[in-house]
Each structure stands twice: as C-alpha cells, then as structure tokens.
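Subject: complex prediction, re-run

Hi both,

The earlier run crashed halfway through, so I resubmitted it with identical inputs.
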Amino acid sequence: MAILITGGAGFIGSHFVRRMVKHSHVVVLDKLTYAGNLENLRDIREDRELSGYFKFYKGDICNQELVDHVMSTEKIDVIVNFAAETHVDRSILSAGTFIDTDIKGVFVLLEASRRYTIKKFIQISTDEVYGTAFHDAFKETDSLNPSNPYAASKAGGDRLAFAYWNTYKLPIIITRASNNYGPYQHPEKFIPLFITNAIEGLKLPLYGDGRQERDWIHVEDHCAAIDFIIENGKEGEVYNIGGGNEKQNIDTALFILSVLAKDKGMIESVKDREGHDRRYALDCTKLKSLGWKPQIDFEEGLRDTIKWYEENEQWWKQIKNGEFMKYYEIQYNHRFAGKN
Ligand code: NAD
Ligand code: DAU
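This time it finished cleanly. Structure:
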C-alpha cells in the first residue's frame, strides 16, 4: 500500500509516519512551515531498512501541479491529510494561511483524488469544530459551531471533504480528535510550552482563570485510531477520537510542576485568549463500538512526555529561538503586562 501523509513532518504526522512505515510505502508531502521539522523524522530517514519505504517531498498541498506529480509518480492508494495551520493563538493574530491550507489545501487534495483512483482519503479534522461543550460530550451528529479562525477553517475542510463523498462518492472518512500530547509537539502548544518554560525557569502563562477543560489523548493512541479507521471505518462517516481525560488547565499545569519538582508560584495567570472555548468533550461510542479504545493512561503518558522533553533539550531549544521568540513576545508580553 502506498500512503500519502501530508504534514508528516509535524507533531502527529511524524508519529503516524513512524507507525505506518513499518508496513507501508510512506510518502510525505510537507511544506516545512515553522511547525514542520525534519528532525521529527530523523530516525526514519537514517534507518537504512525503513528509509527504503519512505519518500519525502517538500511542498505545499495548495500546489495542484505538485500534488498531481506526487499522486501520479507514487501511485498513491491512501491519503491521510494532517497538513494544516494548527495553532489557535496564531489564527487569532492572523488567519490568512489558515484559510489557504486548511480549506484551499483540502480542496486541492480532494480534486486530485477525483483525477487519480484512490482507495481511501482520511481528512484529519478536530473536536474544535463543535465549539464549546456547554452540556454533554459531543457526538458526531451534533451541529458544528466553530468559534475561532482555526476551528472555522478546519470546519471548512471537514465539510468540504464530506461534500466530496456525498457528491462524487470519493472514499472519504473524517476524524475529529481531542487535544493530543506527547513527544515532538511544538513548544507553542500548552503542554510543551509549560514543560519547557518550567525547565528553563520561566513563568507559565495560564490564560484567564485556568479552569478551561481539555480532553487529552496521547498522540500514539490517536495514531492507532487513525490506522484502525483506515481498516475498519466506513466511507462518508465521521469518527470522534478522544482520550477520555478531561482536565482543567490549572490541574495539568500543577501536575507538570509537581513532576518536575518546581514551585507552583511559576504559574502566572495572564490575559485570557480571545473567544476562548471553555470546554471540549467528545463522545467516542461510535469508534469504540467498532473495537478501538485508547491505551495510554494520562498521568503515565504525561510523565513520559515530560521525561522526553527533559532528555531532548536540543530538539526544543533549536525551535525556541529566532522566529519563535518574536512570536512569543507578540503573543505574551502584553498578556504578562496586563495580567488577568
Ligand atoms: P503541526 O502544526 O505540528 O504540524 C502541521 C504540519 O503541516 C507541519 O509539518 C507543517 O509544515 C505542515 N504544513 C502546514 N501547512 C502546509 C501546507 N500548506 N502544505 C503542506 N504541509 C503543510 O500539527 P499537529 O498538531 O501535528 O496537527 C496535525 C493535524 O491534526 C492537523 O490537521 C490538526 O488540525 C489536527 N489535529 C490536531 C490536534 C492536536 O491536538 N495537535 C487535535 C486534533 C486534530
Ligand atoms: O482540541 C483539538 C485542538 O487542540 C487541535 O485541533 C489544535 O490544533 C491544538 O492546537 C489544540 O488546540 P487548543 O487551543 O486546545 O490547544 P493549546 O495547546 O493551544 O491550548 C490548550 C489549553 O491551554 C487552552 O485552553 C488554552 C490554554 N493555554 C494555552 C497556551 C498556549 C494557556 O492557558 N496558556 C498558553 O500559553
């Protein structure tokens, strides 16, 4: 099987590449934006045995000519589209690239799928498309209410993929996962930012009252679910993928500090995210009824993740300079100044 993994140099994509390359011919198409990092794939590229099953193309999923070239040269059977602009805070600062990649990019991949015969197309969506879970956990049939530019752009890609199944009968499946954590996550995101700031002795900027809730899933559980869905999922369907670990941000922050034996005074309550979704929660009965369930205990997974960041300082220190520090100043200086 030849599988095209777009965004394969990012956080989740690189874990998925590592999983699939053991039994499939893996082709990665990645633009290598600030979030893409070939270091995430170093072990695979350097493994003589695995590297024979792995090919990397640097490029944009919005580039139709390039996508066609990859599809025809590599004879792709399955597409898994991870490529996206993914950080909510960056989408609030500037949404243009989110519209390009998360909507137009999906369109280009879908059009290419009409021209070349594919067996499956998995569109990686997100639980953010549902908006805040005020009451029960969301089911796949609940209506979408995306409430920040990132979530809205992902909802566009999600519904466009569905439309191509409905209209052209392309073999499309959509997944909506909850918050991932694990090794190789970019330090702009909450868990790696708090771990690395704590290691560096910097303040931990907790938005608002810190009582927002997120349902955390280990990235390897998420990748196992996608692999399972390729085999067992039904075309035209949406599958929620949640970890079943709903935590308030303040509690996750305190847990990180306790594992690192750091003072809880390092947490600083800062100005809240604009339009901050209060709670995400997923009902995963549909996927579980097919036989999938998450395996990794949250506290154990988070301890291992913290250890990974302690042991891989070089990986994140290379990221936490240059462009990142400029972003950090724009994103956080006024928040620390304005506090709550
Ligand atoms: P990430 O930001 O770590 O990686 C995104 C990757 O996509 C990077 O390698 C980047 O270079 C690449 N990319 C961006 N624009 C591109 C373009 N135009 N063409 C080709 N490549 C491009 O993201 P992630 O956290 O690994 O998320 C992967 C996918 O999973 C995204 O679609 C995201 O919406 C979805 N998702 C993420 C989470 C989460 O908690 N991280 C949860 C649910 C769903
Ligand atoms: O739910 C799935 C989504 O999870 C994915 O679709 C997104 O790509 C991914 O980035 C993530 O979005 P969140 O906005 O939930 O994740 P983030 O890590 O940015 O923030 C998690 C929570 O922590 C959120 O309530 C905001 C809060 N936070 C975040 C940062 C970066 C802080 O309190 N301080 C921070 O500095």
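DSSP finds 14 helices and twelve strands in the chain.

- K.
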